Amino acid sequence: MKARFLIPLVAFLALLGLFYVGLGLNPREVPSPLIDKAAPQFNLAQLHEPEKTIGTADFRGQVVMLNVWASWCVACRQEHPLLVEISKRNEVPIYGLNYKDEPADAKNWLDRLGNPYLVSAADRDGRVGIDWGVYGVPETFVVDKKGVIRYKQIGPITLDAWNNKIKPLVEQLRQEQG
Amino acid sequence: MSQAMRGFLLVLAVVSLPLWAAAIDPYVFDNPEQEARFKALSAELRCLVCQNQSIGDSNAELAQDLRREIYGMIKTGLSDKEIVDFMVDRYGDFVLYRPPVKSSTMLLWLGPFVMVVVGLIALVVYIRRRTQEPKTQEAELSAEERARFEALVQTENKQADS
Description:
The structure holds 2 protein chains of 2 kinds. Chain A contains 5 helices and 7 strands, in the order H-E-E-E-H-E-H-E-H-E-E-H. By secondary structure, chain A is of the alpha/beta class. The longest helix of chain A has 22 residues, at about 5-25. Chain A is elongated, with a radius of gyration of 20 Å. In chain A, about 35% of the residues are buried. The model of chain A has no long low-confidence stretch (mean pLDDT about 95). In chain B, about 65% of the residues lie in helices and about 0% in strands. The interface between A and B is medium-sized, with 16 and 16 residues.
């Protein structure tokens, strides 16, 4: 067999390889440039008790999950039962960033579907969201004891993502120094 | 105004609606340079929600929020570079509508040209190979094959005449 007949075959196999990898990727996903960088500082009014505030300063010293959510967000409902379960089992403290929402709607939503958040921060105009590079809801950040963002989940947290990526990461981060 | 004229104008108005729907924000600038900068920056940054549109074109809420941010930063006196850096720090290189020319994007920028060159070379090689091949590839017919050929030609001629 002449060598030149192999060229289309090799090219085809190379293309197959590229397609296999490429089609498995999500082109809409925007990876966060904040991974391994210090979490953008914020201090916002609490959703349920607006006279108090909650912010990055309160997270120091512990591994936390910051979940960006809103009552108008349909996809948030997908991950909500999982978040409620995680909070019931006390696996990791979950804080909420209530993004561009009406406090009344947000509180109603939590009353109906359960509240997994230790505290939710009210980001009424979305400026804190912009600082954290939020471009869609829901998104979830894992922040370590030193206040460094270590992981960003784009879209709802799936059981798969929790078991295989987030939970092991949280456990690993707990071992680190604060 | 005739009925037809009115109808025509109505259609024209309706069809041109998309032009009016371009994102219009009630932003007041101190001078035309600021407004020009705002428009330029809005065109250079990508809307992360409608990812094939710039922040200037998109009406997604995030685009509106980011335009508000850009407006605020222009009024505060930040430079174009500072505003772009602000966006890239938060959203990464993808927020730049025009991909930056970096080592990691070299393949993206040069790829098409490389492929055209490769294609042209392949074409030239192919054509040259074709023109250099001998015109007659058929082997000589043996005596027996020639006899058969003659016989077949004869019968064909006879069929054609009849």
